[in-house]
Structure of DUF2218 domain-containing protein:
Amino acid sequence: MTTNLISAEAAVTTDRPGRYLTQLCKHFAHKIESAEFTEERGDLKFSAGSCELTAEDGVLRLRVHADSTENLDRMEHVVASHLVRFGQRDELVVDWTRL
């Protein structure tokens, strides 16, 4: 049986995308099903869905996937709230676009 996933993406402008990618992945590593990452790319597996992170020049790109709107809402909230808290000094803004 194939599960249809729904997704959302955000491009967060920052001078330190690799730092925030690593910080998020390290933070979640002991709390979720799996976390694999380098400074350029991260893959997080939560019970509610997954998140792909990519550090680009001046941008941290986030893409979340889930099997329901409720779980996608949860994924957007969890990932964004942690990133905004970590990047409070840099006033990071996460604006999701549903795909």
Remarks:
- The two ends are 22 Å apart (CA to CA).
